[in-house]
Amino acid sequence: MTPCGMRLRELVLLYVFLAIVTAANGLFDFLKPRVATPSAATAGIKNVVVFGASGGVGQLVCQQSIAQGLKVQAVTRNIASASVFAPLAGCTFVEADARDPSTLMQALQGMDAVVISIGTTAFPTSKWEDGKNNPQIACVDTVRNILDALDEMSSNAKKKGKGKKGAGTCKRVVLLSSIGVDRAKDFPFVILNLYGVLSAKKESETLLLERSLASNGRYEAVVVRPGRLVGAPFTNFDLAKLLGKTNEGTASRGVVLSKNDDLAGDCERGDVALAVTKILKSERLRKPQTVFSIINEVGATPNDDEWDEKFASVEV
Ligand SMILES: NC(=O)c1ccc[n+]([C@@H]2O[C@H](COP(=O)([O-])OP(=O)(O)OC[C@H]3O[C@@H](n4cnc5c(N)ncnc54)[C@H](OP(=O)(O)O)[C@@H]3O)[C@@H](O)[C@H]2O)c1
User: Fold this and answer.
1) Cα(310) to centroid of ligand 1, in Å?
2) Got the DSSP string for 217-260?
3) Domain enclosing residue 43, as ranges
4) What integer pLDDT is reported at residue 20 of this predicted model?
5) In terms of C-beta density within 10 A (0-12 exposed, 13-18 middle, 19 or more buried), how is residue 89 classed?
6) 5 falls within a domain
7) Mutation pick for ligand 1 pocket among 62, 118, 197, 271 (CB with most ligand atoms within 8 Å)
8) What is the structure's pLDDT at 163?
9) pLDDT (tens digit, 9 = 90+) per residue, 189-223?
10) Is 216 inside any structural domain?
11) How distant, in Å, are the alpha carbons of 28, 51, 127 from that of 19?
């Protein structure tokens, strides 16, 4: 088969996959991105750096974290283009490419928490930059470089006699992964993983979990595995965007969390961002490692107590 024929077949398979997921989940019932209400809880986190801040989830994490009273440093490879996004108003910006370790220290310095929402497309697009930012590089190498930089900062601080959990030392790392990482051989994830994006996400999870254990309590790792992302901001190829769907005028929705990779469905970018912001503020998730999947369900937006219960249910 010609390369062109193969690309066509994969695109058809992708559409079939999207159509199945769509039908199964009553898609296009989009809702307004949510802005978190300030919470009383605090995990001692005041300064947060967001990698992938210009992305769909990243923008909303920044916006909601600011609404929660956190100081947010937005990382982008191009400040000129990222700074036009309205949800990033109020952030300070740092230009860094997580493929380049030499750019990372300035982004991480003085930060209490790190959110890694870096991503690329599951199938080859211009975002792969001719292979220079493919899933393996964008999802694994970047995470390794960030964790290496955190370790280096910690050993530099030790040399200067500074405490292991002092102000401005990273205490929590939140990594955006995906549902399906443990089911990459099963339909429909096997299609999504044709170019290895789920395998790369799994590898990045393993890296973070191993490194947080090795940090001896210096920082906690929280891995968030969203279902297929829907809703604005549309930053990637998206069936909903193609159909001109917006999230205006729709009803409230709930979220379901699971500590196993056993959920199937969609998750609004706004709800993933809300979960991340709650993680940053939560006194829970103090175990070295927490991993959970998240999708939407019919229901009401959780209040702070309900988020607390949901986090308790996924703590190991
Ligand atoms: N799409 C889905 O259905 C889905 C499902 C489950 C999980 N996820 C995951 O959820 C997260 C958020 O997804 P999203 O759709 O909001 O992401 P997105 O819009 O594609 O944004 C990804 C961001 O990553 C940044 N980035 C890419 N390469 C980078 C690099 N080498 N160094 C630093 N930053 C880099 C880009 O920022 P700059 O260009 O400004 O540098 C971009 O804004 C991602 O981790 C994604 O893999 C997605």
Assistant:
1) 25
2) TSSEEEEEEE-EEESSS--S--HHHHTT---TT---EEEEEESS
3) 17-314
4) 52
5) exposed
6) no
7) 118
8) 57
9) 999 999 999 999 999 999 999 999 999 989 999 99
10) yes
11) 12, 31, 23
SS3 of 156, please? helix
Verify cis geometry, omega within 30 degrees of 0, for the bond prior to 101.
no
Straight-line distance from the first to the last Cα atom of the chain, in angstroms, rounded to the nearest whole number = 48
Q: Are residues 56 and 235 in contact, defined by beta-carbon separation less than 8 angstroms? A: yes
The answer to whether the CB of 289 falls within 8 A of the CB of 212 is: yes
Residue 45 is part of a domain; what is its CATH number?
3.40.50.720
Please tell me the distance between residue 79's alpha carbon and the centre of ligand 1 in angstroms: 16
Check pocket membership of 55 for ligand 1, CB cut-off 6 A: yes
Whether residue 2 is contained in a domain is answered as no
What per-residue confidence (pLDDT) applies to 25? 44
Ligand 1 pocket, residue 117 CB under 6 Å: yes
Q: How many whole angstroms from 157 Cα to the centroid of ligand 1?
A: 30
pTM comes to 0.87
Tell me the C-alpha distance between 185 and 211, whole Å. 26
Q: Rounded to the nearest whole angstrom, what is the distance from the C-alpha of residue 185 to the centroid of ligand 1?
A: 23
Side-chain-side CA neighbours of 287 within 13 Å: the count stands at 13
Query: Which whole-number Å values give the CA distances from 166 to 41, 68, 278, 279, 281, in the listed order?
Result: 19, 21, 21, 19, 17
Say what the pLDDT of residue 191 is.
95
> How many domains does the chain contain in total?
1
Residues of the chain with pLDDT under 70: 1-43, 162-168, 237-252
Cα(164) to ligand 1 centroid in Å equals 30
- Asked if residue 10 is part of any domain, the answer here is no
Closest CA to 222 of 307, 137, 135, 316: 316
